Amino acid sequence: MTSVRRREEVRMRDRAFSGSVYLLGTLATAVITALALPVLLAPPAARGWAEWHRQRAGRLLGVPADGRLGGRRALAWALAHVAVGFPLGLAALMCLGNILVAAVALPLWWAFPAGERPTLFSFFDVHVGDWETALVGGSVQIAVLGAAAWWVLPTLARLHARLCLAVLAPSARERLTERVDVLTRSRVGVVDAHGAELQRIERDLHDGTQARLVTIAMQLGMARESLADDPDAVAALLAQAHETAEEAMVELRTVLQTIYPPILADRGLDGALTALAVRSSVPVHIELADLGALPATVEAVAYYVIAEALTNVTKHAAATRAALRIKRAGDVLSIEVTDDGRGGADEARGTGIPGIRRRVAALDGAVRLDSPPGGPTTLAVQMPCA
Fold first, then answer.
1. 3-state secondary structure string across 286-309
2. What's the CATH fold of domain 176-259?
3. Helices 43-61 & 2-35, crossing angle to 10 degrees?
4. Exposure of 198 by Cβ count < 10 A (0-12 exposed, 13-18 middle, 19+ buried)?
5. Which end of the chain has less neighbouring CB within 10 Å, N or C?
6. Which segments of the chain belong to CATH 1.20.5?
7. 23 pLDDT tier (thresholds 50, 70, 90)
8. What is its EC number (predicted)?
9. How far is residue 234's CA from residue 117's CA, in Å, rounded to a whole number?
10. Residue 248 predicted with pLDDT over 80
11. Cα 225 to Cα 231: distance, rounded to the nearest angstrom
């Protein structure tokens, strides 16, 4: 019970601090907005300034702030920010400033000239002329304004942040336009990925299986020609053809496994992931919830994503352990692969992340990679699975 209360106190203290800092920043940016309003009439400047505020508000509320930002809404936000942000920020400044006055200046009231001594509660204009007024009145002022800073300022900050996100929220038409753009890009990516996959399969069949079949045909032809002249060589040629045929079957099976892993059909996604973890040279801890029935396409993409992620952990992360968490919430499948490696994953170095993004985007999913230098690395994927 004590630990719960302590966590709640820490959370409230963090809210009070972040809310106060947010409102003081709001006052400063409101003044800057008012002074730079002619500059903000230009759409690029207005959008950049509004986007900065939107991300700031999203961080305070702990919600994502994304979507296309139009010039008109950015300009409307500049005007609303001056009208609302300035009084809210000024209220925070007065509250915190008077706490500072009460805490620092009032104990030193005697050091001020008689006509310039500090006052308590600006509205009541209570002058400090003795120690009783300084100590009692100062304590009351600190308590009242401290309670306001603890309870009221975080609420005002969150109201301002919600107003910011509401004013700058994309319209339904803008969301539809952005959605169409995303689907267009993902379709292009899917087409490119499909073409690359066909080229890879063709190359594997041409360089592997087809070459083996040509060798078998040559060996059988030589055996037929040697049947009358050198019967003893026929057995050796047939043995070679048999070995080559087995090798061709293995290579063909390998190619087919890359199209749709047979283990998914044989053991399902649960068994396939367990097999991946067992084969991994890095120990993998699996947390697998009940996923229910999944479409075959979703299972295949999930298997590919996890296989590629564990391969990256083995080859690039220098990790000692990894963890795989996969769960389903309604119609959304969530996958998370983490490792304790060195981090710093760079998609430009060919670590397979672009391929993961293309496959997930084809199902209208999302990929998030968090890999700071020094680790840990987290790959989070969400896909619709209705």
1. EEECCCCCCCHHHHHHHHHHHHHH
2. 1.20.5
3. 170
4. exposed
5. N
6. 176-259
7. very high
8. 2.7.13.3
9. 117
10. no
11. 10
Give the global pTM. Answer: 0.51
* 367-382 burial: b if 16+ Cβ within 10 Å, else e: bebebeeebbbbbebb
Closest CA to 167 of 65, 256, 269: 65
Which stretch of 201-205, 312-316, 332-336 has the lowest confidence by average pLDDT? 201-205
- For residues 74 and 366, what is the distance between their CA atoms, to the nearest angstrom? 27
Average pLDDT, the chain: 79
Both tokens assigned to 123: 């509205």
Measuring CA to CA, which residue among 53, 64, 26 is closest to residue 164? 53
b/e for 322-348, b at 16 or more Cβ within 10 A? Answer: bbbebebeeeebbbbbbbbbbbebeee
**Three-state SS at 333:** strand
- Beta pairing partners, 381: 335, 367
**Is the pLDDT assigned to residue 157 strictly greater than 90?**
yes
Query: Where does the chain hold its CATH 3.30.565.10 domain(s)?
Result: 263-384
User: Coil, helix or strand for 331?
Assistant: coil
Whole-number Å distance between alpha carbons of 298 and 289: 16
CATH of 263-384, one of 3.40.50.620, 2.60.40.290, 3.30.565.10, 3.30.470.20: 3.30.565.10
What is the rounded distance in angstroms from the CA atom of residue 36 to the CA atom of residue 186? Answer: 39
